[in-house]
Design brief:
Pathway: Amino-acid biosynthesis; L-phenylalanine biosynthesis; phenylpyruvate from prephenate: step 1/1. The protein is of the alpha/beta class. The protein contains nine helices and 15 strands. It has three domains: about 90 residues, D-Maltodextrin-Binding Protein, domain 2 (3-Layer(aba) Sandwich); about 80 residues, Periplasmic binding protein-like II (D-Maltodextrin-Binding Protein, domain 2); about 80 residues, ACT domain (Alpha-Beta Plaits, 2-Layer Sandwich).
Length: about 280
C-alpha cells in the first residue's frame, strides 16, 4: 500500500484533490497531516511517497508556506497540478433557524471568502476561526447547538451535518490550485507547466534581462510572484510558472540561459496539468 499525504484533517479541499488524483484506494492509503510543514518534511524524509498541498488560491493568492518550503527547505518535485473549484457550504443542524445561530466556525480564509453572505444572513453571529474548514465541521458536529460551520460537502458527509445553504462564497469563480509533490520528476502530459524559483544580482534591469530570455525563446510565462530571500532585508526571490515542459527544446534552451545568468536557481518541477 502506497502512502499519500494531504493537508488534513479529513474533509478538507486537500483531501478532495487527493481523492480526485489518487482514486484507486486499493493501491493508495491517504494520510492527513496537521500542517503543510509536517507533510512536506514527511515526503522529503521518505516517510510517505507523495503529498497533495494547496499552492495558490484565485482570491487569496499564493500559499506562502508551500512556495517558501519548496524553495528553501525541501528537495521535492511538483509532479502534477490539480485545480479544485472552491464551493463553500453552510453546515449545521436543521433544528435551528438562521436567526438562532450564535456562532459560525471556519478557517479564516473561508470566513473571508463568504464575508458578504455571512454579514447579510447572520449579522449578529460571532465568527470563530479554526485551523481548517474540516475542524470547524467536526467541532460543530460534536454538540447539537445553534452553531454553524463553513465547510465542504465531503466534511458534511463525514461528520453527519446537514447542508443549510450551498455555494455561499461571495465570488463564484473561486478556485484553489493543488500540487502533487514527490521525489521523482513529473511526467509529460498533453498540457504541461514548469515552475522555478530564482534570484538575480541587485543591479538595474537584471530581472528584465532574465524575463526577456523567455520572450526570445517564445516561452509563455503565466505567473510571477516575489518572496523575501530570508537572507537580507530588501532581497527577494522570484517564483515563475511557464507553459510547457523541460523536454521541449525551446523550454530547455531558455532554462539553460536563465540558470547561467541567475545568482540562485532551482527548478521546482515540470509536470502535467490535470483537468
Amino acid at each position: 500500500m502506497l502512502l499519500i499525504g494531504y493537508l488534513g484533517p479529513s474533509g478538507t479541499f486537500s483531501e478532495q484533490a487527493a481523492l480526485s488524483y489518487f482514486n484507486n484506494l486499493n493501491e493508495y492509503e491517504l494520510i492527513p497531516f496537521p500542517t503543510i510543514q509536517d507533510l512536506l518534511q514527511a515526503i522529503d524524509r521518505g516517510e510517505i511517497l507523495k503529498g497533495v498541498v494547496p499552492i495558490e488560491n484565485s482570491i487569496e493568492g499564493a500559499v506562502n508556506t508551500t512556495v517558501d518550503m519548496l524553495a528553501f527547505e525541501v528537495n521535492l518535485n511538483i509532479q502534477a497540478e490539480i485545480v479544485i473549484p472552491v464551493r463553500h457550504y453552510l453546515l449545521g443542524y436543521k433544528e435551528f433557524a438562521f436567526n438562532e445561530i450564535t456562532q459560525v466556525l471556519s478557517h479564516p480564509q473561508a470566513i473571508a471568502q463568504c464575508r458578504n453572505y455571512l454579514h447579510t444572513h447572520m449579522p449578529k453571529a460571532e465568527m470563530v476561526f479554526t485551523s481548517s474548514t474540516a475542524e470547524a465541521v467536526r467541532e460543530v458536529a460534536s454538540k447539537k447547538s445553534p452553531r454553524a460551520a463553513v465547510g465542504t460537502l465531503l466534511a458534511a458527509k463525514k461528520y453527519g451535518l446537514s447542508v443549510l445553504d450551498s455555494d455561499i462564497q461571495d465570488t463564484k469563480q473561486n478556485e484553489t490550485r493543488f500540487v502533487v509533490l514527490g521525489k521523482e520528476e513529473g511526467k509529460k502530459g498533453d498540457k504541461c507547466k514548469t515552475s522555478l524559483v530564482f534570484s538575480t544580482e541587485n543591479k538595474p534591469g537584471e530581472l528584465y534581462r532574465i524575463l526577456n530570455i523567455f520572450s526570445l525563446w517564445d516561452v509563455n510565462m503565466t505567473k510571477i510572484i516575489s518572496r523575501p530571500s530570508k537572507t537580507k532585508l530588501g532581497e527577494y526571490v522570484f517564483f515563475i510558472d511557464l507553459e510547457g515542459h523541460v523536454l521541449e527544446e525551446d523550454m530547455k534552451n531558455a532554462l539553460m540561459m536563465v540558470q547561467r545568468k541567475t545568482s540562485f536557481y532551482k527548478l521546482l518541477g515540470s509536470y502535467e496539468i490535470i483537468e
